[in-house]
Amino acid sequence: MLIQFNFKNFRSFRDDATLDMSATKITEYNDHVISVANEKLLPVAAIFGANASGKSNVFEAFKYMAMYVIRSFYYGDEAENKMEKSEFVPPTPFLFDKNSSNGESSFEVYFTDVDNGSEKVYNYGFSIDQKGITEEWLNYKSKSSRNDYKTIFYRNKETLDLVGLPKKHQENIESS
Fold this sequence. Notes:
By secondary structure, the chain is of the alpha+beta class.
């Protein structure tokens, strides 16, 4: 279940923006809060604001991230493959700032999952520019752990670190 969604440099948002589904300590509406992996979360969120304040762009940012992940297999690793597929749609950055209009956009989610009775919190995200992914990561931690996240994989343009995967899987990924 979604805990938090963060994004930056997308459409009308230049700076970091966060949609946080964590419940507050207010106990007045405890019957509207659900508990997942020992985390108290809101099952529904509403975004209020004036006209043209960016409410729809929060949804569009989440939609962009989801569709990019779903279709990413078709994009290929090289720019030539991306052009052939015509599926690749670069993000629309914040255009009213020279640095932002040429900069990368980033998207990140925190979510919970129960795997074989073990509750875990995952952190997945990527940064992307007009040419493609510049950085991508997946981390996890046990819900009971107070330690930092452990890396499953991390990649940027120069490196691919698969430290959190079993050796057998690392070899399969590196050889393909």
